[in-house]
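Dear support,

We are seeing what looks like truncated structure output for some complexes. This example has two components. We would appreciate it if you could run it in full and send us the complete token output so we can diff it against ours.
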Amino acid sequence: MAKHRGRGIASINYPIGMNLGGDPSQALVHSNPSGKFTVSLSSIDLGQGMKSVTRQICAETLGVPVEDVYVDTADSDTGPHCMGSFASRGTHRVGNAVMAAAKEARGVMMEAAAEELEVNAADLDTDGRGNIHVKGAPHRSISTKDVAIAAQFRQGKTISGRGIFLVPLSEVNPETGEMSPATCYAHACLVAEVEVDDETGEVAMVRMDSAYELGRALNPRLVEQQLVGGAWMGISHALFETPEPYYPDPSHGPRDFVEYLMPGPGDICPHDIAVLERPAADGPFGAKGPGEMCANPVLPAVANAIFNAVGVRMDELPITPEKVLRAIKAQGGARPQARR
Amino acid sequence: MTKTPLQFRHNGRDVALFVDGGVNLLVALRELIGDMTPKFGCGQGGCGACSVLIDGELHLSCLTLAETVNGRAVETLDGLRDGPNLHPLQRAFMEHFAAQCGYCTPGMLMAAKALLDRNPSPTRAEVIEAISGNICRCTGYEPIINAVLAVATSGRARA
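Here is the complete output from our reference environment:
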């Protein structure tokens, strides 16, 4: 009876968003007379940070401080349409829609500023601090607030913009069945090290090392947070969680958090993450999205690590101590594989 | 049904109310006092979202009969900040991105406060032990552990 260490690797190629019906999202951007901007979305931020990221995208596109942008989400009664927060699509799809809306609003804002400064709009630029000035002549400037006031009360203009991002529905090649279900893909590779107890069947996480390629990380701290939390969820799916432990037999299903097991703070392990940035051609500022991909490579890597440790191929999730013990018994004992 | 008069300290202020027999402290805090910071997660002590301090000790308010806190001091997340100033733990949670959806955060903060009040310089293992009754589904716990450790080590010598 012993504890065996093993190491496993997995790589992921993950499509951003879906293509069923085109997968569109819309955004509306408008200013109020204080010169601050509101982004209206129906998209939902569950804590993954879409509000922060769309705020950054809008501010950057408009050329105004991020503090001057407010993002209003998750009201499908009043907001423009969104397909939803799933398929790692938020940053990419909603971000692109916000970018398009902000671009249109910026055009109106610059026209309104041009009228006030009596210059051509093409000669104007924003300074990112709430002012619009003549290129090469920073003293010839007007604040976005004064532009908003002028547009509202003198020029009779709404500084606003509409945006939609719609991937055209992919045609299926009748000869080959080939289609393009997604426009960009994120990638990940993860190495998991585990310790398997051949007496109890328990699998303990020892460490993880991973690399994620997700376009440009628009908010590196949020990306890191997503990757750390998502890897935990991967451990949970690999080793703990299931609503139907004896599927398809529904008996013994968990009824509460005492029976629905998840890794606790003592079950996590050191995780070293490298973020690689390879901007996507059609992403907002090159972003793809970490999304679901952050959990996915953990599962096969853990299963491979268990094989490496005790020589059993686990093909049903979650990999519970009971399943590991049965597999080891069926094979006549643990058979540690060569470590590479 | 007869109601029972109940008086206790709530975040440093005296409160007096009438409760039905069998009402738990979580319901009393949220529905009768209007302090929405303790969260209802599971209602049976499995998740820690409703954690509060009673006379300085960590308790699950969903499993505590309201009548049992008569004459005692109850602290919730609502009383953690000092006026406009956040508690060091709240600041550390922000700085370490220790919250995503935020539903577990009130309970986590109270569990962390209970720990630091009795042990100002805990080890990582002690922090893990202290929050092990609180479920978080977003962060993977690592940022929460780091946030608590940052407060434990800042300004205090750590073993």
